[in-house]
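Example 5.3 — Transcriptional regulator
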Amino acid sequence: MSRSRSSVPIKTAAERKLLFDQLQQIAQGLGETFAPFCEVVLHDLTDPRNAIVAIHNNLSGRKVGQGATELGLARIADPDYPQVIANYANSFADGRQAKSTSIGIKGADGAYVAALCLNVDLTLFQGLQSAIGQFVSVDAQNGPRESLTPVGADAIRAHIDRFAARRATTPRALTTEDRRSLLRELRDAGCMQVRRSSDIIAAHLGVSRATVYADAR
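Solution (predicted structure tokens):
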């Protein structure tokens, strides 16, 4: 049987008030941060019949002073019950799906005295997920085959990568002399005839287009 508040010694009562005052601040801060999607509820597990001390972003329709949930009663009965239960499936009274996290708070004697619970309404997020899924979907079978990358750009980049690999370095770490040799190879391979080849080469090498023109002389 839980002790009534009047039976708690003065010192313990003062400590309890301090603890719950701090937990109230945490609950308020979390509620304001995750509004309006997340309900934050502070439970007093020393008084299971009137467990709800505070409720922010009320999504469940519960009220301050209502009793403890099954999870709260389980913690009261068993100090070894898990202290943190995160991201478990839940639902509100009207059937809306929720994701919940419950954090048990213990006193100095190891018994549970409070719980801080977060209940996220998944309804809006599920709607957004559906809308985003529709937006990013593409018709890969019926659409025309097209690339926004200039024809031959991949071949130029691959040639540059092979050139750098032969020198055990990266394209952006090539020396001036290496770049000049590279550009001769690209010219001999016909890569410089590709539209906007200078832009492609400059971007892959991490240099300006003017530098590419200078090295190509």
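Remark. Residues 1-10 have pLDDT under 50 and may be disordered.
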